[in-house]
Amino acid sequence: MPQEPKKRHSRQRQGKRRKSIKLGLTNRAVCENCHKIIKPHTVCKFCGYYNKKQIIIPKVKKEKKEKPE
Hints:
Blueprint: H1 11-18, E1 29-30, E2 37-38, E3 49-50, E4 53-54
Antiparallel strand pairs: 1-2, 3-4
């Protein structure tokens, strides 16, 4: 059976332990085709290119038509 802690750690000590486990910023890359910021090693969601080749054709949002009055 594993041992149990003999005394409780304070909140300050708990925070000191957890401060090194913080989340960092994710890496970013620039799309070579449209020059927008994207995640590295992924297809650009704006233009559909990856490694200077078009992989997918992105969907274009249709503009809403105004109702005639």
